[in-house]
Design a protein that fits this description.
Elements lengths: L1 H25 L16 H21 L1
Length: about 60
């Protein structure tokens, strides 16, 4: 019976090793260039930019 458990543990160890290798291959390195332009032609993003500019312009007028 103990050899059966040892065999099963050995299989599990191999599977864990394989899963770790797959995980390392799938991890994505963060790089801003991969997300650049993601919001192109997005009306919600364009509205957000416009509203931000309006808020900044209002702040400039208040400073005068």
């Amino acid at each position: 019976m103990s050899s059966n458990i040892e065999h099963r543990v050995g299989i599990l160890e191999e599977e864990v090793t394989e899963l770790k290798k797959k995980l390392q291959r799938t991890q994505i390195e963060k790089d801003w260039r991969k997300t650049f332009g993601m919001s192109a032609d997005d009306p919600g993003f364009d509205e957000m930019i416009q509203l931000g500019q309006e808020i900044r312009n209002e702040g400039r007028q208040d400073d005068r």
